[in-house]
Amino acid sequence: MGGLVSGTPPPSPPGRNVERPPTPDPLARFQALQRKVEEESSANQKRRGPGTLSARGRLQALFDAGSFTELDQLVTHRVRGFGMEERRPLGDGVVTGWGRVEGRTVVGFAQDGSVFGGSLGEAHAQKIVKAMELAERIGAPVVGINDSGGARIQEGVVSLGGYGEVFHRNVLYSGVVPQISLVLGPCAGGAVYSPAMTDFIILAEGLSHMFITGPDVIKAVTGEEVSFDALGGSDTHATLSGVAHLVAPDEAAAIALTRRLLGYLPSNNLEDPPLAPAREPPAGSAEGLGSIVPSDPNQPYDAHRVLEGVADPGSLLEIFPRWAPNLLTLLGRLGGRSVGFVANQPAHLAGCLDISASEKGARFVRTLDAFNVPLITFVDVPGFLPGTQQEYGGIIRHGAKLLYAYAEASVPKLTVVLRKAYGGAYVVMCSKHIGGDLNLAWPQSEIAVMGAEGAVNILFRREIAEAPEGEREGVRRSFISRYREEFLHPYLAAERGYLDAVIDPAETRARLLAGLETLATKREEQPAKKHGNIPL
Questions:
Q1: Domain 52-262 sits in which CATH superfamily?
Q2: 416 φ, ψ (degrees, to nearest 5)
């Protein structure tokens, strides 16, 4: 057949004019596709209803004006059956790309709940994976805006495989680049696991829902009736489950909060956090710092006031503000440097460490250590919360998480004992024994195995019992007074080098600033290993 490929038309005879089909105009084809993108985007927005941004609009709001560059706008799924071949929206229900936040490059993706319910299929997953891989290659944070009903049923196991690919990148890039999840819609089933493995989760009131199984399934299986909000709303995850790091009143505030959060973090684990202009507290605030903490070790106070007196004004951003409020975890700045503050909160549970507080602190410490943010710890802790509920719930292993996190952290670690530091909790709260770099104490601080009353009841039980009945209380109080004078002060610890200095409370900010400056070049060699095995 003259070597022609089968089906190829024979050449035209010489000298004969043959009418050829017109060549398509490439520019016209491109413009038609752009119009289709705009039409689909407009239709999606109408389905979402007024007052809610589209997926593309959410990314544009996240990034600096005019800086968003979209990727894979023309990707479509390849599924046949269930009528899917007739429904092939451009982008496949997720918008991806990069832009700038305060001038720094950030990669982002936003799921579109108006396209197949935001469900994840093969093409949808590949777009997210591609964006995450780009973030890792260029060393940029990745922000995921999640609005998804879960796996796309029409794609079966392929959609499940897509989730696995996303999860794998979450783990590979954990501690390499910051990963932040905004949940701005319902997220169910597999859709919640990717956010759960990121560094921060931000929810919006009335808009965000996260759960493994929805209310209908729960009712069918257990007979329990529960609403969407009670099961997986922002209030539940902010106060009970500890899933939400931050909650905003609406999606615009959630996006603004994300931009603010990024300002405390480096672009990747090989960089230092960005510096900000230093701001000094109001004149006289240093002198008033010591009066915030009552001398009575049993009197509560709000530790926020201490942090506000030390940090750069207006710089504090509390993480997990409503979960485990007996331990405070805040991002902030000191002399313009990004730092993380951890503080016992005597206004709740007397500042005791319990299961939730230990998990909260450990998570915060490990996240900041991964991204080179120094840690400043303020200690006023009577111990671990006693009780059968805590013991049965595993306070031993959960409390060990916080101990492990502090001991493992290699960033600069500065500690100030404000008042009480009793028992094992003294060791856990970033003591010198587990790697504290600069350990300070206020003069009224008490560092001991336990408080005076408990110690006397054990140490002098016999002497008190042998005293005449009418004198026993006086004898007990005498022993308490002696114990306080001999043991409940910071100077025994200072004599042994467990404290680097006992300081006037008014010096606290200045001492911490000097410590941060000195420790800025800290280098710490740790034993070679694949990874540690943190208690779970």
A1: 2-enoyl-CoA Hydratase; Chain A, domain 1 (3.90.226.10)
A2: -125, 120
The boundaries of every CATH 3.90.226.10 domain in the chain are: 52-262, 290-451+488-519
Name residue, tokens 């916080």: 402
In the predicted model, residues of the chain with pLDDT beneath 70 are 1-18, 36, 39-51
The 3-state secondary structure of 51-86 reads CCCCHHHHHHHHCCCCCCEEECCCCCCCCCCCCHHH
Query: What is the distance between the alpha carbons of residues 207 and 157, in angstroms, rounded to a whole number?
Result: 29
Cβ proximity of 251 and 122 under 8 Å: no
Tell me how crowded residue 493 is: count the other CB atoms within 10 A of its CB: 21
316 exposure class (CB count in 10 Å sphere: 0-12, 13-18, 19+): middle
Task: Tell me the per-residue pLDDT of 98-134, one tens digit each, with 9 for 90 and over.
Answer: 999 999 999 999 999 888 889 899 999 999 999 999 9
Local structure of residue 275 (DSSP, 8 states): P
> What is the tens place of the pLDDT at every residue in 367-384?
999 999 999 999 999 999
**Rounded-to-integer distance, Cα 395 and Cα 383, Å:** 12
- Write out 176-210 in H/E/C secondary structure: CCCEEEEEEEEEEHHHHHHHHCCCEEEEECCCCEE
Q: What is the dihedral of CA 140, 141, 145, 149, to 10 degrees?
A: 90
Cα 394 to Cα 382: distance, rounded to the nearest angstrom: 19
Q: What is the pLDDT of residue 433?
A: 97
Taking the C-alpha atoms of residue 13 and residue 202, their distance in angstroms, rounded to an integer, is 71
Burial of 52 by CB count in 10 Å (0-12 exposed, 13-18 middle, 19+ buried)? middle
Count the Cβ atoms, other than its own, within 10 Å of residue 147.
27
Q: CA of 223: how far to CAs of 212, 213, 237, in Å? A: 17, 13, 22
**Token output for 488:** 């409940």
Catalogue the active-site residues. Answer: 189-190, 424-425
- d(Cα 400, Cα 535) in Å, to the nearest integer? 6
pLDDT of residue 46: 61
User: Which fold, 290-451+488-519?
Assistant: 2-enoyl-CoA Hydratase; Chain A, domain 1 (3.90.226)
Q: Is 458 left (phi over 0), alpha (psi -120 to 50) or beta?
A: alpha
User: And the tokens for 133?
Assistant: 């891989």
CA dist 488 and 481 (Å) reads: 10
Which residue's structure tokens are 């940090």? Answer: 311
Whole-prediction pTM: 0.90
CA distance 381 to 344: 6
